[in-house]
Amino acid sequence: MTVYATPDRNAAGVRVIRAAGGLMCIKCRLVPGDDVDHAHFRAEGIPAMLDHLDFHTVLGDYVPPEAFVRLRAEYADLFERGAL
Ligand SMILES: [Zn+2]
Predict the structure, then answer these.
(1) Which of 14, 60, 62, 63 has the least C-beta neighbours within 10 A?
(2) Could you tell me if 7 and 56 are in contact, meaning their C-beta atoms sit under 8 angstroms apart?
(3) Separation CA 72–CA 74 (nearest Å)
(4) Distance of CA 39 to the CA centre of its chain
(5) What is the value of pTM for the model shown?
(6) Residue 36 pLDDT > 80, yes or no?
(7) How far is CA 26 from each of CA 57, 74, 78, 82, rounded to the nearest angstrom?
């Protein structure tokens, strides 16, 4: 599992990971519904997650810059490998 942002490690207002389920924002407050513990946003790809994290930032949630840098670097790697 890859952890891009977590409140424990870099004071992030979000928890973003890549696990078996894909690229996810865990316990995301932007996901509608009352069951926050199971409200996970699952991105279809890195650009979708970057958009999602921009939205968190606009709403005042702290997303560490390194989370954006890492996701963009991974996306660039995919591009260079011809996977996009
Ligand atoms: Zn989210």
Answers:
(1) 60
(2) no
(3) 5
(4) 13
(5) 0.91
(6) no
(7) 16, 20, 24, 29
The 3-state DSSP class for residue 13 equals: coil
The structure tokens listed for 18 are 């890549």
Q: Compute the distance from residue 48 Cα to the ligand 1 centre, in Å.
A: 11
Cα(56) to ligand 1 centroid in Å equals 6
Q: 72 C-alpha vs ligand 1 centroid, how far in Å? A: 17
User: How many percent of the chain have pLDDT more than 90?
Assistant: 83
What residues flank ion ligand 1 with Cβ within 5 A? Answer: 25, 28, 30, 41
